[in-house]
């Protein structure tokens, strides 16, 4: 593989320094107690050019040798029935399933349960956090988005993209979902292979790919940053919206995503155990990312306008109102600089809805029992997912 000498090239840029001295980066540092420096930069930077080679080999052996539906059925059989050393299957399949079927010695299912419960009991705040902080905030990192642009995600549309993200997130954050052969485990393996399929496709067809600057497509370091989004950024968003959580729930959230990352083939030493570690890892990664570009703005606006395109709500005024509420949350969660870079529309009374939400959450947390909140949160999240799947699986919806 070609050698690249990566440096923290944007560490003196205004977008980087503003984020870490004034914006959400400063808040994350205070929230986590992180110690920020570049002494470990070289320990992580080579992962920008590192990929999940095991997943890639499985795709070459299974998906690229037969029809897609046939290949998918075969993989589903392996996921649901398991693969042993004695099975007559391609070596790559054996290698991947031996890794994913082996329970790491650090895995604690009780902690995963606590993390899943936090995701469920935060109810619709979880979905607001995923959409208006984690997803749209990720669009501010121009190079991170390049695989989405290369695979023409914009043509697919934000409703479909959101539906897929929601389907994955909900299915890996339910009770016992990540046990071997269960639904969350299945989603993790399939997502891993989708990443490999996309990566091989980009390398074959997208001639403009700039490896020096963008890293390998869907590289391990970018994957780490994405999963810091699901753990650290998600947790910070819940906190900003006035949710409370126990030390065990917080630890459980990081543990859950560490295991999902492990199943996805992200190297273990890239997967943080807690918010302090996650913030320090994230700091290093952000130093190689330029600010939003025109692709970032297109992706952000595609997501903002999803509320208008989505037929879940029957009337146009409802859709416009939902878009307004998401814009309010985006300004509240991401802050002024990021919103201006992404050209998020400025709207009147934009802090009203999020501040009201904070007050309601404080009251709700202190008056409604934890078990009742978990049960209601699970029910409400499953209802949103069902609505999205009903729409995106309808052949008339484009």
TrEMBL record:
Coiled coil: none annotated. Signal peptide: none annotated. The lineage of its organism: Bacteria, Pseudomonadati, Bacteroidota, Flavobacteriia, Flavobacteriales. Residues 154-345 form the ER-bound oxygenase mpaB/mpaB'/Rubber oxygenase catalytic domain. Pfam families: MPAB_Lcp_cat. It comes from Chryseobacterium luquanense. PANTHER family: ER-BOUND OXYGENASE MPAB_MPAB'_RUBBER OXYGENASE CATALYTIC DOMAIN-CONTAINING PROTEIN (PTHR37539:SF1), SECRETED PROTEIN-RELATED (PTHR37539). This is DUF2236 domain-containing protein.
